[in-house]
Amino acid sequence: MNIPAGGQAAGDPVRLAVKPGERLTVTLYFQGATGPATYHNLAQATSYRATGDHLRDLGAAAFAETNSSWFYLSGVDVYGDAAAVATFGDSITDGYGATQDADDRYPDALAHRLAGRRPVVNLGIAGNRLLTDSACLGERGLARFRWDVLDRSRVKSVIVLEGINDILLGLQEPTPCTTPAVKVGADDLIGGYRQLIRAAHAHGVRIIGGTLLPAKGYAYLTDEAERIRDAVNTWIRTSGAFDAVVDFERAVADPADPDRIRPGFDSGDHLHPNPAGYQAMADAIDLRTL
Questions:
Q1: Rounded distance, CA 161 to CA 209, Å?
Q2: Confidence band of 17 (pLDDT split at 50, 70, 90)
Q3: How far, in Å, CA of 23 to CA of 72, rounded?
Q4: What average pLDDT is seen over the chain?
Q5: What is the per-residue pLDDT across 167-211, written as a single tens digit (0 to 9) for each?
Q6: How far apart are the first and last CA of the chain?
Q7: CA distance 78 to 234
């Protein structure tokens, strides 16, 4: 089978008895060298590699090399009647600051709250921007929203938490991964959100807007970036454009300094939550809005 650039292929269905929250191991075998691999960088889970054909090994002894990314496999479809919830965003959805191999990202915590009644799909890409493509950090959210969310079977609601990278990276010196560094304002992001909302509604998908988290103390935050973040959050809360709102900002904010993440929720960089912060984010979601 030849898979064109940007394409994908699905394997044959298989019957497996699994429980909500249970882990699956998927083993892939390649007969020869593949060249550069497609991968998901920030997996927060360990992948294992062996040399040679160990596809049917029952033990793990041959899989001595480890990596913290996922390669080639983009997802596992699960058949069922329950409507799925998609979580769409950047590294905060992807789980930067979560515990390796512990499944304590905010989408994981949401899945635990739903207790298997509805599946949760994590569609976060670290560094992703809503309005601008990147050679390293994924195509812009406006483009990938269709195939990541709307073309996915059984997704009936999506939580969107994206925009902080557009703000921060647009005000920094560009790197190979952040080129082009496009300066954006609140109106630019609001226009992008409106496009997502129209697309979701056209497909019968309910869309929930998440406010951008506090970032005071983050190394690259500027006064201008903070003003844009505040304006965006005010619009998300008050415009009525989204079907519902999750106030992630207030869920993790320090009561003594609301522009800063609460110390007990801070992973250490003042931008990404730790597992306790991710749990607070999941707890802030009104399950009735999903």
A1: 7
A2: confident
A3: 18
A4: 94
A5: 999 999 999 999 999 999 999 999 999 999 999 999 999 999 999
A6: 39
A7: 37
Q: How wide is the angle at C-alpha 105 spanned by C-alphas 240 and 6, nearest 5°? A: 80
Neighbouring-strand partners of residue 86: 121, 158
According to the model, what pLDDT value does residue 194 have? 98
Of 246, 79, 232, 59, nearest in space to 160 by CA: 246
CA dihedral 273, 109, 164, 169 (to 10 degrees): 70
pLDDT digits (tens, 9 = 90+) for 94-136: 999 999 999 999 999 999 999 989 999 999 999 999 999 999 9
Q: Name the phi and psi angles at 278, rounded to 5.
A: -65, -35
The dihedral sign for the CA sequence 199, 204, 205, 209 = positive
User: Does pLDDT of 9 surpass 90?
Assistant: no
Percent of the chain with pLDDT over 70: 100
CB 92 within 8 A of CB 104: no
**CA gap 175, 155 in Å, rounded:** 35
Tokens 């697309």 belong to: 199
Nearest CA to 187 out of 234, 250, 242 is that of 234
For residues 273 and 275, give the distance between their C-alpha atoms in angstroms, rounded to a whole number.
Answer: 7
Contacts of residue 250, defined as CB under 8 A and 6 or more positions apart, other chains included, come to: 211, 258, 284
Distance CA 191, CA 48 (A): 42
E-strand spans in the chain? Answer: 39-40, 47-49, 65-67, 70-71, 84-89, 120-124, 155-161, 206-210, 244-246, 253-254, 257-261
User: Are 20 and 111 in contact, with CB atoms under 8 Å apart?
Assistant: yes
What is the distance between the alpha carbons of residues 107 and 122, in angstroms, rounded to a whole number? 6
Cβ atoms within 10 A of the Cβ of 67, count? 13
Of 282, 290, 264, nearest to 105 (Cα)? 282
